[in-house]
Amino acid sequence: MTSQATSQTSQENQNMTKIPLSRSEVFGELRKELHEDEEFHQSDAHIFIIMGASGDLAKKKIYPTLWNTYISGKYADEDSFSKLDTHIQSLPGGTEANRLFYLALPPTVYHDVSKNIRTCCMSKKGWNRVIVEKPFGHDLQSSEELSAHLSSLFTEDQIYRIDHYLGKEMVQNLMVLRFGNRIFGPIWNRDSIACVVLSFKEPFGTQGRGGYFDDFGIIRDVMQNHLLQMLCLVAMEKPASTSSDDVRDEKVKVLKCIAPVTLSDVVLGQYVGDPEGEGDSKLGYLDDPTVPKGSTQATFTTAVLYVHNERWDGVPFILRCGKALNERKAEVRLQFTDVPGDIFGNQCRRNELVVRVQPNEAVYAKMMSKKPGVYFSPEETELDLTYKSRYKAGASLFLCAEKHCKHRNQKDVKLPDAYERLILDVFCGSQMHFVRSDELREAWRIFTPLLHRIDKEKPKPIPYKYGSRGPTEADDLSKKVGFRYEGTYKWVNPHRL
Fold first, then answer.
1. Where in the sequence does UniProt note compositional bias of the Polar residues kind (predicted)?
2. 23-133 has which CATH code?
3. Domain limits of the chain?
């Protein structure tokens, strides 16, 4: 799949205060203001090549943002890549164009494709960059082999290991919340925080994708990458700057402080059908015809990790992820310690700071307040920043310079998709939101012993009903390590009121 995106340099005398910026102009202005990037020029020709054009990822996430034409070929056939190179050079500006290769492929063909790209398709005059989609291997050894192979063909600054969660608005917001606000700094440590919970919940099952899922499982699919990346952003020390390497240096330091996960700190579950449910909810994981009969693959996992450093020693980081649960949600929840010297007769609940990644992006702090009326009774409430309410569907975030557009609060402007942000980062040469090789190595080091033990012993996962919160044993584990779940308070999205 080839795509050529060329943008015209806007006239300097254009009246920006009257004419709204186009989507591409907004991104261009944003990158110029935030990164002052010298590599990205709107007048340059950029050619985007997708390997794996027939795949689900490409159809759902990549194509909606790109123009296309199609070249058919075999991944292991050098002549097919020579044909692709000939086509690229025939495009306007193709001989001098920058080339971005997106490997939306299974890891089994990475070796052939990357080798043929290096041999046949590299730009002689422009830059060359390669996006590699997760999973980055199957365990530490396979990941190291893949990294060594890619490193033999490309330099590290040409390799972009993409985890789309690093492109989500609220995940990127974690750094600003932490290091741009004085109020959080003094309490962001083991003296004030009792535990940190990172959750990823989906209300649907595998639905015909069980063959792929059964090969990897929920730990490899979600926990080892998405949740661990969010953990790093919560736990890392303040970087020297917002440069890519400074940020990723601090993330690696966090990972090095985490010991490998043991099976005693893990709860594994597998969903079963709900006899009283409707549609797919009547079906369990093993009812999926693409799932091997009798599979013991987990569709739900809770794991407890500890960061053994001065800031976090003793604070449990509880990672929870699963399919066929009671809601769709991804969030970071910091639960603070009890207020010392209670004078309200055990009526107070713990404070919490919640960063909701999806859906309905929000940041809210759960706190105690006096219940209105004549009685002196505390009740739970929240300080709420819900993006759809505050930012008018995201318009003021990206039409952020009032001098550029007077229509900055129009409601039809939406937050960019995570893939849009990350692909733009690749064009700009920014690697802050991509996974570095040493970061990947440490992530696999943490989970590989657990994964190997599960693969070898095949422990039977605990059944949980489709549409439930997951196994009750997972709640027991969280309670055991210090998380306190009262279940008396639920955040209400104010946008729906």
1. 1-17
2. 3.40.50.720
3. 23-133, 166-481
